[in-house]
């Protein structure tokens, strides 16, 4: 079989091969692509090698880490409000209750606004669905990690509507929706949510990497011993992962 030195990332479903991930830039400086070489990822000595389990395990926040969050622009526009007007008019805890699975979507619609006005529930869900898209460059990185058999899980504050994200973007091609706040009744940065995740994974926290765009969530992860990365963009994430032993 002819050895391939470098090639463009394959589409999902192509047989995986051991590789390192290398950043190359096209003529547009803001766009990052990835190519593969037939060398293996160089794991840091901080992760044990005498195990059949691929380490580290990667835990990804979803909104504004993997997927654009429509809440800040699309949703206020849907209601014909500014973001601050939306914050002032909505129930202060209804969304958090929905994220924790404590109320269903019909109850959310009933109490969403403090003044009791009607909520167009289906219109809101359509607005959300239309607003979901991958953060630039992140899908290529997820594919590269998946092709090299890294174990990846969502670790996210989101209601049952995570299914809308899945229906549109098919994140399950790359990771498992294992830790959603709506299924666990807890939200980041609740320490108990992190502890529950570690118990489920049956792994030492030092063998996990958690990526999130919110510094507080990352801070709590590091407090329980998980390696934390504050997500800002894909290029910086690649650099951080490289420092942790994943050769990007």
TrEMBL record:
<protein>
    <submittedName>
        <fullName>Uncharacterized protein</fullName>
    </submittedName>
</protein>
<dbReference type="InterPro" id="IPR023214">
    <property type="entry name" value="HAD_sf"/>
</dbReference>
<dbReference type="InterPro" id="IPR036412">
    <property type="entry name" value="HAD-like_sf"/>
</dbReference>
<dbReference type="InterPro" id="IPR006439">
    <property type="entry name" value="HAD-SF_hydro_IA"/>
</dbReference>
<dbReference type="Pfam" id="PF00702">
    <property type="entry name" value="Hydrolase"/>
</dbReference>
């Amino acid at each position: 079989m002819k050895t391939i030195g470098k090639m463009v990332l394959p589409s999902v479903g192509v047989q995986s091969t051991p590789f390192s991930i290398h950043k190359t830039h096209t003529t547009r400086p803001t766009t990052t692509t990835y190519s593969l070489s037939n060398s293996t990822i160089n794991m840091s000595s901080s992760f044990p090698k005498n195990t059949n389990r691929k380490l580290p395990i990667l835990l990804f926040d979803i909104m504004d880490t993997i997927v654009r969050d429509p809440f800040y622009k699309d949703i206020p526009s849907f209601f014909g409000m500014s973001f601050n007007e939306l914050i002032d008019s909505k129930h202060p805890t209804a969304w958090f209750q929905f994220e924790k699975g404590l109320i269903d979507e019909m109850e959310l619609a009933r109490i969403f606004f403090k003044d009791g006005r009607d909520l167009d529930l289906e219109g809101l869900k359509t607005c959300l669905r239309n607003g979901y898209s991958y953060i630039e460059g992140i899908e290529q990185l997820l594919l590269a990690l998946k092709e090299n058999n890294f174990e990846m899980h969502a670790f996210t504050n989101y209601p049952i509507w995570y299914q809308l994200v899945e229906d549109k973007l098919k994140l399950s091609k790359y990771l498992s929706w294992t830790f959603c706040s709506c299924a666990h009744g807890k939200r980041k940065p609740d320490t108990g949510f992190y502890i529950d995740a570690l118990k489920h994974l049956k792994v030492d926290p030092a063998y996990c990497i958690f990526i999130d765009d919110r510094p507080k969530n990352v801070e709590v992860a590091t407090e329980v011993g998980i390696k934390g990365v504050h997500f800002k963009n894909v290029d910086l994430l690649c650099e951080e992962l490289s420092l942790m032993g994943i050769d990007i």
